[in-house]
Amino acid sequence: SYVLTQAPSVSVAPGKTAKITCGGNNIGSKSVHWYQQRSGQAPVLVMSYDNDRPSGIPERFSGSNSGNTATLTIGGVEGGDEADYYCQVWGGSSNNPHAIFGGGTKLTVL
Amino acid sequence: QVQLVQSGAEVKKPGASVKVSCKASGYIFASYGITWVRQAPGQGLEWMGWISVYNGKTNYAQQLRDRVTMTTDTSTTTAYMELMSLRSDDTAVYYCARGDPVTGGDLWGQGTLVSVSS
Questions:
Q1: What residues in chain B have their Cβ under 8 A from chain A's Cβ atoms?
Q2: What's the CA dihedral at B80, B86, B92, B98 to 10 degrees?
């Protein structure tokens, strides 16, 4: 089955840029969604279809996807960005669709 | 207001069943699927399955296929997830989300804690 690999943690100083990666075999051929989950809260979609920012998500968030790695980039990191981030792709077939999540990356703002 | 509101926390004994509801409002219910995701304490997100509100088609995660049933009631714009034969490792927060495996979930409920303990 298809596996998505995320680093358990990433740390970044305020104002700097954070890059959160999601690895998978030829993930560049798939569409990747990204979710932010702050402590004790429900997930929020912050990036869809690799690089499409939903309404209300700051322009500081951007996404890319190529080869075996998809990346969520957060520029000018703020304290409120501290959260767990999960990538997700669609797996299976059109007759048997299912979703696959990465293990999540905890972003710590120093 | 566009939102999904879930039912309250549940405490169940092993072997019992639980049915979690997810009330949708503020959008055309039949235009989107409903996905269910759970999160065990301190763990990541686990996709459980999804249902097409439009035609009732479902797809369940392989590891839950024998125990889970997802339904919708379009008259009340409510989705339901029933999990049977509960075990202690089913203890988790259960989320509903608007969307399907392709589109992802763009709107999430607040979560429902289901605790399974003897």
A1: 35, 37, 44-47, 49-50, 59, 61-62, 95, 97, 100-106, 108-111
A2: -20
Q: Do B92 and B99 meet the contact criterion of CB atoms below 8 Å apart?
A: no
Report the residue of A30, A31, A87, A88 to disrupt the B interface, i.e. the one with the largest count of B CBs within 10 Å: A88
Confidence (pLDDT) at B75: 97
Q: Distance between CA B100 and CA B47 in Å, rounded?
A: 11
Residue among B32, B34, B36, B39 with most chain A CBs within 10 A, to mutate: B39
pLDDT 10s digits, B70-93: 999 999 999 999 999 999 999 999
Question: What pLDDT is attached to residue B102?
Answer: 84
The residue among A89, A100, A79 whose CA lies nearest residue A18 is A79
List the one residue out of A68, A26, A61, A24 whose CA is nearest residue A44.
A61
What are the start-end ranges of the E strands in chain A?
A: 9-12, 18-23, 32-37, 44-47, 61-66, 69-74, 83-92, 97-101, 105-109
pLDDT in tens, B1-35: 999 999 999 999 999 999 999 999 999 999 999 99
**Encoded tokens for B73:** 């009631």
* Cα B9 to Cα B14: distance, rounded to the nearest angstrom: 16
Which of chain B's residues have a Cβ under 8 Å away from the Cβ of A106? none
Residue with structure tokens 């439009």?
Answer: B54
